[in-house]
Amino acid sequence: GNWLIPALHTTCRTTHKISISADIQSYKTTGRNDHSKTQNAVTLLQESFSKTLNDRKEYVPGAPLSTDGSKKAGVLYIVNSLFAMYFRLNTLRLCKNLLRPVESRNLHEQGDDGDKVTYRYYVGRLAMFEDQYESAERHLDYALEHCYRGARGN
C-alpha cells in the first residue's frame, strides 16, 4: 500500500545525501572524483522508481495513505531525486527515461505542490540544455510562481 510512501521519501532523501557525502569523503581520501557512491544510489532509486511506477493498484490523487492505496503517489518525489542526481552526474540523457512514463500517465500533475514545482524546475533546466527556450521559460516560470516564498534558497 501507499502508507509506506513517507518512509520511501525519507529513504530516498537520505540515500541521496549520504551518497554525496560519501563521494566528497572519497575525493578527500583518494583524490579521485568518480561519483561512484552517487551512481550506486542512482541504481537504488531507479529500482524504487520502477516499483512505484508499475504498481498495479489504481492511483487516486489526494487519497489518504492506506494499506491498499497505490504506490504511484510516491513517483514524483523519486523522479525529482533522480533528476538531482542525474544533473550532479551530468547524465542528462537519462532524464528522458523518467519524463516519458511520468508524463504519459499525467503523474507530473499529481502530488504535493512542492514536488510539482521541483519537477517543473528540472524539466525547465533540461529544456534549456536542449535549446528549447519557450518550453524552458514556461516550466521555470511555473516553478518560480508556485514555489514557497519563505524559502530564500529559491
UniProtKB/TrEMBL annotation:
Organism of origin: Helicotheca tamesis
Coiled coil regions in record: none
One cellular-component annotation, GO: transcription export complex 2
Biological process according to GO: poly(A)+ mRNA export from nucleus; post-transcriptional tethering of RNA polymerase II gene DNA at nuclear periphery; transcription elongation by RNA polymerase II
UniProt-listed InterPro entries: Csn12-like
Protein name: KIF-binding protein
Domain of life the protein comes from: Eukaryota
Record-annotated membrane-spanning stretches: none
GO molecular function annotation: double-stranded DNA binding; RNA binding
